[in-house]
Design brief:
- Helices cover 74% and strands 1% of the residues.
- Strands 1-2 form a two-stranded antiparallel sheet.
- Strand 1 and strand 2 form a beta hairpin.
């Protein structure tokens, strides 16, 4: 078990500590304020009770919300491009602002320009979720080239008397020229291929296959079970696989949010929200079982401590208190409950009860029932209650076994204490 733990931990750490994967994951986390703005605007814009839509139209609120969405979700790749370069420079101890600007320049140079009635335009689909992978690729490459140029002293040196802000601006000129030239060569080179643009090539060879890879219930069940499998060894499962989740499932969620904002049909069932929000209230179920279904004082105490945090998605008191970490009795329910919960959401969706998730970003620590309502409406509340019941049913026999083991241990400790007191 220790050997297996060491191998899994080494692999997880290697993925998690890769500077490029970390830059992408941290960029997505840094994107949260922008996505929250878009989510709130989309939720308000979708309110349709009585004459609310007409009132919002008359007072200009719908036009305002449409503009907010257009400058957030519809151009999300612009923010991604800047953030991946900024975060990469943060990991490499380089100038973050200039690296972010070089990333943004790289993405824009690589993005195709269309001509419509003698007007040169850039399609929002290129700047939105459709350009996400180009933003990541161009952003990382542009920032890395810029940082390498600075490290190799390919910069303009200014006298020490020049203010630092001016010195940094001049120091970025030569790297900026090199970055722009390389991106321009890539753009022209792609124009000579059957794909025409890097956007189309990446979509054909990377984005579409990755989306297709995750677009099935079995992949989702395996992912959520593996997340808990990592937790069994004390590894934060979500953080360990977060960069991969971002690559595969973030873009479909953005597509859904954009469609929801525009009042269109949602295109994707399998999104990052579908995976992370439908794993069931597992720790909450364990906490209630520990309080009301167990006789062990230890388990009752852990249940009381972990009850409130588990309602907000904080599972550490339960996972380490029961414990579920490195406890072979808890491994099976630990992995089965999220997989069954995700399966239940899928079945409720394909029978037509549960709508597709609207792509609204739920902050970490959001209460379980309210989160279901925001992403799926009232049906989301029912779905989360069903998942909670399933988690309770699955955990009952395993918590009984854990309770027996804990009671035996407590009795043994009491016996030892009595012997010591007698002596």
């Amino acid at each position: 078990m220790n050997t297996l733990k060491d191998k899994i931990l080494a692999a997880a750490v290697q993925v998690q500590n890769n500077i490029y994967m970390k830059a992408i994951a941290n960029a997505m986390m840094g994107l949260m304020p922008v996505m929250m703005i878009s989510s709130i605007a989309s939720l308000i814009n979708a309110i349709d009770i009585g004459a609310t839509q007409q009132i919002m139209e008359q007072i200009g609120l719908k036009a305002l919300l449409t503009q907010v969405n257009a400058m957030t979700i519809d151009v999300v790749s612009v923010y991604v491009a800047f953030l991946v370069g900024y975060k990469l420079a943060e990991h490499l101890n380089a100038d973050q602002l200039n690296a972010g600007i070089m990333s943004l320049v790289s993405f824009l140079i690589l993005s195709p320009i269309s001509t419509l009635e003698e007007t040169r335009t850039m399609e929002l689909s290129t700047l939105g979720s459709g350009g996400m992978f180009v933003a990541m690729f161009g952003g990382l490459l542009g920032a890395r080239i810029y940082i390498l140029c600075v490290q190799k002293n390919l910069t303009i040196k200014m006298p020490d008397s020049v203010p630092p802000i001016v010195n940094k601006s001049f120091a970025a000129i030569v790297p900026a020229i090199i970055v722009s030239a390389i991106m321009g060569i890539i753009y022209v080179g792609m124009a000579a291929t059957p794909y025409g643009t890097l956007t189309d090539m990446i979509y054909t060879w990377v984005q579409a296959p990755l989306t297709l890879l995750g677009a099935n219930i079995f992949a989702c069940m395996i992912i959520v079970a593996f997340i808990e499998f990592l937790w069994f060894f004390g590894i934060h499962g979500v953080l360990a696989v977060y960069p991969i989740l971002m690559l595969v499932f973030y873009q479909p969620g953005l597509d859904n949010l954009a469609a929801y904002s525009a009042g269109q049909a949602l295109p994707h069932l399998f999104t990052i929200g579908f995976i992370l929000n439908n794993r069931g209230a597992r720790s909450f179920a364990v906490a209630l079982l520990a309080i009301f279904g167990c006789k062990s004082e230890q388990l009752k105490a852990v249940g009381k401590i972990g009850l409130i945090p588990s309602m907000f998605g904080i599972s550490e008191p339960i996972k380490f208190g029961i414990p579920q970490v490195m406890n072979i009795r808890m491994l099976l329910p630990l992995m089965v409950t999220p997989a069954v919960s995700v399966l239940s959401a899928y079945l409720l969706t394909i029978v037509g009860f549960l709508p597709y998730q609207n792509g609204v970003n739920i902050p970490t620590g959001f209460p379980i029932i309210f989160g279901g309502f925001l992403v799926n409406g009232w049906q989301g509340i029912i779905a989360q209650l069903i998942q909670f019941v399933l988690c309770v049913i699955i955990y009952i026999p395993f918590m009984r076994l854990q309770d027996k083991a804990a009671l035996a241990e407590e009795k043994n400790l009491q016996t030892q204490a009595a012997v010591v007191e007698y002596k």
